Amino acid sequence: MDKRSSQLQVTRFSIEQAACLQRLMESNPGYSQRVTSAVPAADAAIEALTALPPTARAEQKIDLGLWLDAELVGFADLIVGWPRTDTVHIGLLMIDGARQAEGLGKQLHEEVLALVQDYPSITTCRITIVDTNAAEAEPFWTSLGYRPTGEASNHAAGDQKSCAWTRPVTSTRKE
Length: 175
What we know:
The chain has 175 residues and is of the alpha+beta class. Helix 1 crosses helix 3. The protein has a seven-stranded mixed beta sheet with strand order 1-2-3-4-5-7-6, with helices on both faces. Helix content is 27%, strand content 31%. It has five helices and seven strands. It has a domain at 3-124: Gcn5-related N-acetyltransferase (GNAT) (Aminopeptidase), CATH 3.40.630. The protein has helices at 18-26, 29-36, 44-50, 104-116, 134-143; strands at residues 8-12, 61-68, 71-80, 87-95, 124-130, 147-154, 161-168. Residues 152-175 are annotated as: Disordered. It comes from Glutamicibacter nicotianae (Arthrobacter nicotianae). Residues 11-170 form the N-acetyltransferase domain. It holds the Pfam family Acetyltransf_10.
């Protein structure tokens, strides 16, 4: 397939598409190894699509898929208005393991920023980086303008710590 003629599209993601997300997660086993010390579980996609942080409600959750023609090449999990009402938390932003370093992560992040424009009360984007994934994740998030807040917590997947990073909600996408 000629990549130049392919079409990228971002859509809301549903639980009915869990098999596509499972394939995406399995294409990126290094992430799971670093964060959970295991390959993605058979139900990793269902967990990602249904998990909520403490105090978050299901209606705050938005999942986005980045599609190249009919293939899922990226996924973003958002919680709008969490942990504060002025914040959108990006719980996961993952790109297909074979498609990394092509700018797809940055493009999906720009789509997140564009979507957040529909929520005028949201002024801050927030992520957490698990310490065992920091060497991989920090350069990417730093390039998008995120900075550490100094807030640290225990990560749900084990003994690791995770650190919060934030940036203002602004989009650099050209319409």
